[in-house]
Amino acid sequence: MVPLSYYLVLGGILFACGVTGFLIKRNIITIFMSIELMLNGVNLSFVAFAAQWHALSGQVFVFFVMVVAAAEAAVGLAVIIAVFRTRETLNVDQVNLLKL
Amino acid sequence: MLHLILFSVFAIICVAGAINLLVQRHPINSALSLVVVMGSLAVEFLLLGAEFVAAVQVIVYAGAVMVLFVFVIMLLNAGEEERTRGSQVALLFGIPGMLIGSLLIAWVLVQSGTHSVAVGALPGPPKTIGWLLFHDYLLPFEVTSVLVLIAIMGAVVLASPQDSVQRKRKES
To answer: d(Cα B158, Cα B45) in Å, to the nearest integer?
Structure first.
């Protein structure tokens, strides 16, 4: 028997790691991976709450989060490829102008 | 007891992977540690009784999405990122503030969370989930299918070479 709060704390730690990575990383791909980490932390709390309240809707929401995350990954990586093609860098500090 | 031990082991692996993602400087190492995080999260889902979610986590996240990431990293030949000197304000206020905030949140959660989750507490066989997905959540399901279609088209348009797009525009 594991208390529900342990799962929530684990999800919170993952989310905090994702936020930290999003703020401190310089590589655009790693920033993108931090976003995926945040989504995973939220998914864990969804499933933990679903188990707590015996409501399967939580698991269905996790599926929707996964679908949206997959779509986001496809579009985001295409954007990264487009940025790299025009700027020839992956460092977000050097991508600071809207025009070329 | 076994449940708690399994939870602790895979939670430690999960947090270690997440911290390794932050510490590593090369994106490919970060991607591989993210795979570790997702795999151990699948085990946590199994412990919660959500076996179908665990399977989808492995297939979609650790499989498809991470392959996409690794593919892009290798395609763009991403190197090590450059370090910059962090600001002093962040060191002075950010880290203690973050520690205090997270300790407060964890304390509140541990204090209030008296309920426990047993192994297999959630009756979530794929049949039930499929019924729920195609009856109660049919409209969101269809909307997400349209979203995925738009995402595929957007990815193709964005990732295709720019000159070919401009040439097509000139022709039309």
So the answer is: 35
Cα A42-A44-A47 angle, rounded to 5 deg: 110
**CA B116 remoteness from chain centre:** 25
Q: Which residues contact B168 (CB under 8 A, 6 or more apart)?
A: none
* Mutation for testing the B interface, residue in A54, A63, A87, A88 having most B CBs under 10 Å: A63
User: Contact A30/B57, CB-based, under 8 Å?
Assistant: no
> pLDDT tens digits, chain A, 100 residues: what are they?
778 888 888 999 999 899 989 988 888 999 999 999 999 999 999 998 888 888 888 889 999 999 999 999 999 999 999 888 888 888 888 888 877 7
Render pLDDT for B81-129 as a digit per residue (tens, 0 to 9).
776 666 777 778 878 888 898 888 888 877 776 566 555 555 667 888 8
Contact assignment for A40 to B47 by CB distance below 8 Å: no
| Cβ of residue B146 closer than 8 Å to a chain A Cβ | no
| CATH label of the domain that carries residue A54 | 1.10.287.3510
- Give the ipTM of the model, two decimals please: 0.91
In terms of CATH architecture, what is B1-81?
A: Up-down Bundle (1.20)
